[in-house]
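hey team, just a heads up i'm posting the complex here instead of the shared drive bc the drive is being weird again. everything in one block, sequence lines first with there labels, then the predicted structure for the whole assembly after. its two chains so it's a bit long, scroll down
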Amino acid sequence: MTVGQSIPRVDAHAKVTGTAQYVGDLEPHDAYFAKIVRAPVANGLVRGFDLTAAQAVPNVVRILTCFDVPDIQFPTAGHPWSLDPGHQDISDRKLLNQRIRVWGDEIAVVIARDRVSAERAARLVVPDIEAYPAISTPQEAMQPDAIPLHEERPNNIVARTEFHVGDGSFAQAVDTPNTVMVSGHYHVPAVQHCHMELVHSVAYMEGDKIVVISSTQIPHIVRRVCGQALGIPWSKVRVIKPYIGGGFGNKQDVLVEPLTAWLTTQVGGHAVKVELTREEVLGCTRTRHAFDWDVQAVATADGTLLARTYRGFANQGGYASHGHAIAANASNVFKQCYRDRLSLDSESFTVYTNRPTAGAMRGYGIPQGCFVMEALTDDLAYALHMDPLEFRLKNCVEAGYVDPHNGITMHSYGLDQAIAKGRAAIDWDRKRAAYQDQTGPVRRGVGMAIFTYKSNVHPFSLETASCRMVLHEDGRVSVQMGATEIGQGADTVFTQMAAESIGLPVSHIDIQSTQDTDITPFDTGAYGSRQTYVCGTACKLTGQSLRAKILEYAASMHARGAEGLTIRDGIIYDEADQQLCTVAEVGMESSYSRTHSLHITAEETYHCEQNSFATGVCFAEIEVDIPLGQIHVLRLVNVHDSGKIINPKLAEAQCHGGMSMGLGYALSEELLFDDACRPLNANLLDYKIPTAMDTPDLEVHFVEIEDPTAPYGNKALGEPPTIPVAAAVRNALLHATGISVNSLPLTPQKLIEHFREAGLLGGNRHV
Amino acid sequence: MTVGQSIPRVDAHAKVTGTAQYVGDLEPHDAYFAKIVRAPVANGLVRGFDLTAAQAVPNVVRILTCFDVPDIQFPTAGHPWSLDPGHQDISDRKLLNQRIRVWGDEIAVVIARDRVSAERAARLVVPDIEAYPAISTPQEAMQPDAIPLHEERPNNIVARTEFHVGDGSFAQAVDTPNTVMVSGHYHVPAVQHCHMELVHSVAYMEGDKIVVISSTQIPHIVRRVCGQALGIPWSKVRVIKPYIGGGFGNKQDVLVEPLTAWLTTQVGGHAVKVELTREEVLGCTRTRHAFDWDVQAVATADGTLLARTYRGFANQGGYASHGHAIAANASNVFKQCYRDRLSLDSESFTVYTNRPTAGAMRGYGIPQGCFVMEALTDDLAYALHMDPLEFRLKNCVEAGYVDPHNGITMHSYGLDQAIAKGRAAIDWDRKRAAYQDQTGPVRRGVGMAIFTYKSNVHPFSLETASCRMVLHEDGRVSVQMGATEIGQGADTVFTQMAAESIGLPVSHIDIQSTQDTDITPFDTGAYGSRQTYVCGTACKLTGQSLRAKILEYAASMHARGAEGLTIRDGIIYDEADQQLCTVAEVGMESSYSRTHSLHITAEETYHCEQNSFATGVCFAEIEVDIPLGQIHVLRLVNVHDSGKIINPKLAEAQCHGGMSMGLGYALSEELLFDDACRPLNANLLDYKIPTAMDTPDLEVHFVEIEDPTAPYGNKALGEPPTIPVAAAVRNALLHATGISVNSLPLTPQKLIEHFREAGLLGGNRHV
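-- predicted structure starts here --
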């Protein structure tokens, strides 16, 4: 079995030696540099430009403005195209926008022979702008007199979703005797992905085809959106995705590719590159949605959850992007984690504001939903004087759960085992007791949070994936996946799956990490933690098909039938387990046979109409220094029920990255804005992501229950590790101090305010 | 019908606008430059090097010598691998050679950060060489005391081939009463391909894979030979062939790729490029073989050819390359053009010398064979006082001809019609008569020459080809051919064939001009005029397969069967010729169907065990200035029996290029050497290729008899146009002056000598 082994990353050698090629390595030698001129206000209208000074800058090739672009609105969300117009993404922006909706909106662009000239000229472009008051929050944007950001949505509401589960009602729960009710307002801020590689795209023309090389998670979708934005047949655009240095959802949006594609058409097909600065990426690409939630929960005194209500507002920022899908996803987690015996009501609004556009980010709404859900859970358990772990065991979703609205089914279930494993690992029971009645300025606490997560996007969107394999003369096999490696290790697990399904050692699999939409098998890309589950099945099916062709050829070489033949470790055995020949011999013979040459390849599509829930839990142990308002995370333990683990070492590394991202969400990360919606900390000095020094040893365990719907029993793992961390840390703080902090991040300033209010500090200090 | 239309070249736009990418456009930005240190003698042994001065040059990264390379000998000929060791190419060189066999042999290499430093250091490398006398000719090399160039071949003979055809013997013919015999010694020189783009290769490593970007005709063969030369699995090498600027057979040899591939492994995978200068390409790559022939022919007085003997010596130069195959090919043309009623005897030797290595060049020996054969034919007709056209009609090969040794069959025959068409075009009969009895210093003549040419290399080598097609969402189709565009227009005819076989307009076909051996369907490359015939069939089969899949999907969309459905111009019609839907609708639905998504692609191998002869004729009208010794070609008419012409305009252009190359061979081209085998004119100033000023209007006609074995009735056309030109010009000179010049090129100096000897000039002048 190759699957289940911790083989080294297949791209480790190339990445460590610096031979892996990224967009910057592939740009033509003489590419022009395009600098975007950004709006100096967050809400307004461009009346015109004075380009005199900018045009006088030497080496400027061309300056294009919002008055030059095609009059075509297009979407940017990285979703598969839908044949149903009502299900298509919202088309609400042009290549450059006259109507300004975000600070730094793209209003013009300077193309120059070099970066310095482009940047210099861009600074000299003088826009004439009619400024409007900036709208910071959904609540402001929903005021009747608020200026509509998009004329198609006069009330600024992008989407409203609601659902009800249960035979009863919240009022019925409230009226039930002997119950406890908690309620609260919760807030999570906008944060940014902080992928290491910036947003980078280069485009040039070959004949009438536009070639776009881009750091993207979704090459086939980028192709389609470029076609839409330019109003040309989609296959007149060719998108090439080389190695990329992280995306985390920001690159599941079509960020700069349509503009880059258009720019090359304006300079005769000469190569043009757009490379955003770190400041532009932080302030002007996409963020995780900020949310406000008003929630209530009722349980019986013995800890039976009766009912909950959630009312949420997602701050969409200036453009729709993924917004309509994310608030819905966030609210789904409420029903997919707990059983409300009477009712669960959820209502969510996604609302345009003048903040930066919010889009996809690892967890796709679930980290936000999980934070409020799990904070509420602990608040309720606290009110019930009940161990929150026991409360969860009593109320959490059970094996075989089926979502009543979309039919997604818990085909395999390991949440209970995950909780048990984490409970033991963190020494929960002892520590819960030990930290019960602390006094003094430094206290400890343990907290936890659970979650569930789908393994792909069916049935919300199309799930389809394909793969091609080529047998070479030496018996090695090239594998082309439409699915994309973005740093997460997808290529390594596909290599294992290909080896497994064909019967080759992994050293004989050569995965092609570059996607090229002209020739790479179709796939929608890296998102939704779908690849191992959906694309992995395409890989498995293709491997089986190639294997059958290899065996058929081997049989013909030996004048026999293929039945009874198998391949193990590159060797073909007959029914008596005797070696017939090697795959290398088949590769050589089929390539060069003078009587029957045959280029052995295989290609399969997997149309996926399955989904299954992964689950998991995070346990955090913290020490909180009350006078300093500082949380020190001592231990962080994630336990994942992600089915069979294809590559334990890689999976563990994936979890480490996700947990670190969750830690930043918990403690330090927040994009800050002034009243004009201008970013205040759009740089990595002022925007604080955790460093190694901030991070404890991260502990990961798996509960490996094979899922019957997956290619190798596996379920989602890419996004889940991030989801529960912030809530677990927040709940540990509640355990340590008895204080519920209902917003993120848990910064010293915020904690000091809470501690002071609770009388733990200063004149009111009880210690 | 798309096939048969003169659509513009599909790469015209990209090439004209400069957006087509060549090797130089694709090299990594920081590639090192490698300069080869070349032997300053043509025969000798390297005893050692003094590298002190070279190593002191700034920016030098590494200097490697013949003492550093792997002890592996490898072949360089661009032939398919043979599973029969006896049929494999001769492995007679290493990456760098200690034993020097040609002037400029590769003995060391300097890698530096830039070209200037590499070149400077290369000049400072001091080799210690033991020099041996240089061997210029096969005759010298075959002397018993000649120094063997390769110890495996002590007599320096690379190959000897002979054959006999006919039930009689030459002696029998000689003894026949009332016959005429002619004999002669013929010589053709070494010439060079003079492709516009130089020999250029860049290699770097991605992980443990070596990526080689190369200007080659044969990417899959380059991969294999790199694997052989480095002693690594073949698929650990990835060869990428972008647009290339001509090859003409020189790039059907693996010239610098193995060295480049090895160099990157010696600098940690950093990119290294090798770009030969024009002087290196002319003097140190490959040449057309120089040949010497001693021939005799006997015919009856009424012009019936009885018997011929040919004894030929091919000057192989220092390494075997394609040599063993070319002399055999050259001699085959003798039997494949004429019927000797009694006997034909041919014996050919291919012999190592210290001249530059001879290899493949357009026509692959046939231009040489055709020159001697057709010169001899005219000499015989002249001796018989017979119209050489009538002699040819009486003796040339007939419809249905089958080569007795290899079974290649004249499946379609248009030679007679081609001769008739050319006879009329040049006004042969009137001019033969008009130029009969000229006197004076300036005279005119008309001459002709015929040829036959195979349409691929079966049964000498494997013929296999494959193709893949991808249907895109917008109904356009990407086509990946293993076969290579090298400037000849292959991609355009494949586009037409793909459009034809699927049922799409050519604008909906998007051919991928770049081959990448990791993923491109397998093919052996551009040579042997095989691609339209062999690879065209792969293209047609794949188009038919894709078409069937499109129809099947369209049928499923309409809940019906696929029988009766057809595609015309991108529209699908039912049995009643009613429009069912479009291919674009199938593309969109199959990509995004929520119930049955399917990535529609097709891939097929064509294993070819067919071949067919193309034939043709060249007519030349010249004016010769006897005192100046100068030939002015007034008209040149080629008529080709190449079956159905896929793209007449492109075919005509192909002929123009070939005829121009033939004109250079006739009049001016010859690589010159001193006694030490040092090239004297390895530059485009002293080596004379025809300019536009030297070239008359080139006239081309086709006899379009469809060949039943070809995908669209087509036969070889790539190489043929070059073949008969030199002989036709030479025979026109015979007509004009009565003088047989039996060597090429027909330079003024040579003509003056002949004219003086014949008494046409000076004291002996008869005019």
